[in-house]
Amino acid sequence: MSHQTVIVLDFGGQYNQLIARRVRECGVYCEVKPYTTPLEELKAMNPIGIIFTGGPNSVYEKNAPHVDPAIFTWGVPVLGICYGCQLMAHTLGGQVTAAQDDSAREYGKTVTYYDPSCRLFQNLPSCGVSWMSHGDYMAKVPEGFALVAHSDACPNVAIADEARGFYGVQYHPEVNHTENGIRMIRNFLYEVCGAAGDWSMGDYLRNAVTAIRERVGDGKVLLALSGGVDSSVCAALLAEAIGKQLTCVFVDHGLMRKDEGDEVEAAFAKWDLNFIRVDAETRFLLKLAGVSEPEHKRKIIGEEFIRVFEEEAKKIGRVDFLAQGTIYPDVIESGAGDAAVIKSHHNVGGLPDYVDFKEIIEPLRLLFKDEVRQLGRELGLPEYLVMRQPFPGPGLAIRVIGDLTKEKLDTLREADAIYRQEIAAAGEDQNINQYFAVLTNTRSVGVMGDGRTYDYTLALRAVTTSDFMTADWARIPYEVLDKISTRIVNEVSGINRIVYDITSKPPATIEWE
Ligand code: XMP
After folding, report:
1. CA-to-CA distance for 338 and 16, rounded, in angstroms?
2. Cβ–Cβ < 8 Å for 409, 384
3. Distance (Å, rounded) from C-alpha 498 to C-alpha 233?
4. Cα dihedral angle (303, 309, 312, 316), rounded to 10 degrees?
5. N or C: the chain end with fewer CB closer than 10 Å?
6. Which of 385, 387, 373 is closest to 270 using CA atoms?
7. Rounded to an integer, what distance in angstroms lies between the CA atom of residue 491 and that of residue 413?
8. Does residue 345's CB lie within 6 angstroms of at least one atom of ligand 1?
């Protein structure tokens, strides 16, 4: 694909993906590479610039990550962030030490003064808050470098060798707490590296379609479509590229939200592909009958899903490619560098064992989630699919507490639909990252009209979060909660009490099961 590339060299810091996303938001393609990548490999990528990320180490430690010093004679501009800045200083003959006193050790929001004549800070205010997180200090700056930013406590917050295009900042320009941080990254890309801004989703789509056609030839591709954002966009992209050579198998386990299965099917009507919707509700409910333990439910659903998919795959016979909706964060987390948290994602090395195929194709492998959504829009997928909140694989089975019945699932579907309608109508869906209703297995006494009721309690859950590892409960306005509560008890039979979950994660989890 013909676009410029920036390399984000990963030293294991917590914001590495964020840096890469920021670069792409600036219209420049970039890839995250572990710092151990051989220089020859980096050179072969022909980058216009390199960004060294932060990292948990100190450069003077024995086993601290290093780079081949030849990276600095290659002629490519470098921006070092935090550890990356210190590493650059250390490698080029400066001196980095542990900060001796607390004043030189900086964490959090710090007022910083910039030299506006430096290309990194060009056309930006000369003073602003930056986000610091470093315990080390550059005692001596390498030759050729000038000090281009300082704080009240630290004289060398940023260093620059304009002639060689080397810049180092002790703070994190990629986080929102740093005022104008993104514009500093933009300056590095456009003023220093000479970026043309040639990364756009429209171009990506055109290039991806060509590349998929070339790779697949006249082969057959199989995709398990879940209705989630990634698999839907993956399906749409493949449909655009190869139409009928693609078969999507959508296992409808009957545990989706109201109308969701039909919505997914409708979204793909515009493409001429083989779309198989397997109505497996009955077999899933039979397997789940009488099961109330959450992990047991998950296991049954996972196994049954595989079985259904396998049966469909067998009917199709041998396929050439199995497509997966793996996205870039999965790729980075599964195998790059020394990042502190490395987990393997279910998409990476998941399904393949039991389907007869030759190769795997992962057309979203280099895209971040927000780019996947953008691509979905370019492809003409409806907004409700593109902006869909995360939905657990086991679906509503883990939102009906205790044992499952079709009646309980239907009751939950109705209540959940009202909840979602009202949240959207109030515009609250813009502020909340995930929200859903839970049918508890508690029944309580109520009074409706002149009669006594003994019905279920419904719990409403809504959280704000950026990573789903921690979450806060959302402060939904009382009027909105009131309207939701009134509508649900009036419109959904079987529910006579509504509670709102006001626990954060931790100690609670987002889901109830
Ligand atoms: P918890 O409840 O662990 O949820 O705080 C964190 C995020 O993961 C989703 N989740 C699941 N997703 N299969 C999935 O694919 C599951 O079994 C599952 N359990 C929880 C949950 O919706 C939230 O976004």
Report:
1. 11
2. no
3. 36
4. -130
5. N
6. 385
7. 12
8. no
d(CA 132, CA 174): 11
Is 371 designated active site? no
Residue 332: the pLDDT is 75
Catalytic residue among 26, 30, 31, 82: 82
DSSP 379: T
3-state secondary structure of 149: strand
Cβ(511) – ligand 1 distance below 6 Å: yes
Regarding the beta carbon of 389 and ligand 1, being less than 6 Å apart is answered no
CA-511 nearest atom, ligand 1: 2
For residue 489 the two structure tokens come to 């008890």
Nearest CA to ligand 1 atom 7: 468
Residue of higher predicted confidence among 155 and 380: 380
Residue 334 pLDDT: 52
pTM comes to 0.81
Catalytic residue among 118, 172, 260, 422: 172
Regarding the beta carbon of 509 and ligand 1, being less than 6 Å apart is answered: yes
CA of 207 to the centre of ligand 1 (A): 34
Catalytic, out of 106, 174, 312, 414: 174
Domains of the chain with CATH codes: 5-192 (3.40.50.880), 201-386 (3.40.50.620), 398-500 (3.30.300.10)
Range scoring the smallest mean pLDDT among 78-82, 93-97, 372-376, 456-460: 93-97
Partners of 115 in beta bridges: none
Q: What span, in angstroms and rounded, lies between the C-alpha atoms of 116 and 499?
A: 55
- The number of C-alpha atoms within 13 Å of 507 and in the hemisphere containing its C-beta is 0
Q: Is 459 in the pocket of ligand 1 (CB under 6 A)?
A: no
Alpha carbons 370 and 466: distance in angstroms, whole number:
13
Mind listing the pLDDT tens digit for each residue in 309-350? 989 988 988 899 999 999 988 887 654 444 433 223 333 345
What is the Cα–Cα distance from 337 to 315, expressed in whole angstroms? 41
Amino acid identity of residue 424, one-letter, is A
Q: Is 434 in the pocket of ligand 1 (CB under 6 A)?
A: yes
Cα–Cα distance, 179 to 304 (Å, whole number): 50
Mutate to test the pocket of ligand 1, among 230, 466, 511 (most ligand atoms within 8 A of CB): 511
Q: Is 248 a catalytic residue?
A: no
Phi/psi of residue 27, each to 5°?
A: 85, 20
CA–chain centroid gap for 439, Å, is: 28
Q: How confident is the model at residue 105 (pLDDT cuts 50, 70, 90)?
A: low
Q: Is 390 in the pocket of ligand 1 (CB under 6 A)?
A: yes
